[in-house]
Design a protein that fits this description.
Elements (H helix, E strand, L loop, with lengths): L4 E5 L4 H12 L4 E5 L12 H6 L19 H8 L1 E4 L2 E7 L4 E6 L5 E5 L2 E4 L24 H13 L4 E5 L3 H12 L3 E5 L11 H10 L1
Parallel strand pairs: 1-2, 1-7, 2-3, 8-9
Antiparallel strand pairs: 4-5, 5-6
Flavin-adenine dinucleotide binds next to helix 1, helix 2 and strand 4.
Length: 210
């Protein structure tokens, strides 16, 4: 009998979790992750700390507590899951039960049949609809690519001033990281207080400390 194939689109946090669960539920299925980026299971929460220089080893964002990098080989050996990186899903044919994907490095296209498809493609930061958002030197902090860019900024030490647009959790963590990197920062927030998740008294206290 042909093996059931479960295909999961994305390999950051939710996708690998879904893949591991699928493997536990169905030991005989073929489980495949298609991940657009080059990395898998990135510890996004650690990006600000890497950017700020709390630690220097980029691999710490990608490894297990025992120091094993969560790369395709790890997924194959430890979990019997095939993880394809640099593989962006470009189309889904629900009737035909196939996904099309494109290798983001070589441009090669591929197609894969599935029995079950799980889409867990996360989110993208909402860029303000203002002119100039695409200019060089403007970045979000959402991906390894962003973290690498900001870490380079830190290491080169050429940038002395930065503006952080958005005073939510990630904005404030980014301020802290850049401040550690010796950059002078202004944070701009649309709402009447920073850290809107807090009561105003606490937010006031945080603002005063900042
Ligand atoms: C700087 C920062 C700090 C954070 N700190 C914390 C924290 O302290 N505590 C906390 O709980 N959470 C924190 N978070 C949030 C947490 O990281 C996210 O909730 C989590 O990453 C969401 O995981 P996800 O798998 O749903 O999506 P994402 O991490 O957004 O991953 C989506 C993935 O899908 C891939 N993808 C998209 N489209 C395709 C496609 N067509 N084909 C293939 N792949 C595709 C992308 O390349 C990406 O890798 C933080 C996030 C950031 C950015």
């Amino acid at each position: 009998m042909q093996k059931r194939r479960i295909v999961i689109v994305e390999g950051s946090a939710a996708g690998p979790k879904a893949a591991a669960k699928a493997r536990r539920i169905d030991n005989s299925a073929e489980v495949v992750i298609l991940q657009k980026e080059a990395d898998l299971s990135m510890a996004s929460c650690g990006y600000p700390y890497y950017v700020g220089g709390y630690f220097d080893d980029r691999n710490m964002l990608l490894c297990t507590p025992t120091g094993v990098t969560r790369n395709p080989l790890f997924y194959l050996n430890a979990k019997d899951i095939e993880a394809k990186v640099n593989s962006e899903v470009t189309a889904i044919d629900r009737k035909g039960h196939t996904v099309s994907f494109r290798n983001t490095v070589t441009g090669d296209a591929g197609e894969m049949a599935y029995d079950k498809l799980i889409i867990a493609t996360g989110s993208v930061p909402r860029m303000p609809p203002v002119p100039g958002v695409g200019l060089d030197g403007i970045t979000t902090l959402q991906s390894m690519k962003d973290a690498d860019f900001l870490r380079k900024v830190r290491d080169e030490g050429k940038i002395k001033k930065a503006v952080v647009v958005g005073g939510g959790l990630i904005g404030i963590e980014t301020c802290e990281a850049l401040q550690l990197a010796g950059v002078e920062i202004t944070v701009i927030e649309l709402l009447p207080q920073l850290l809107m998740i807090l009561d105003w008294e606490l937010a006031k206290l945080a603002s005063r400390i900042m």
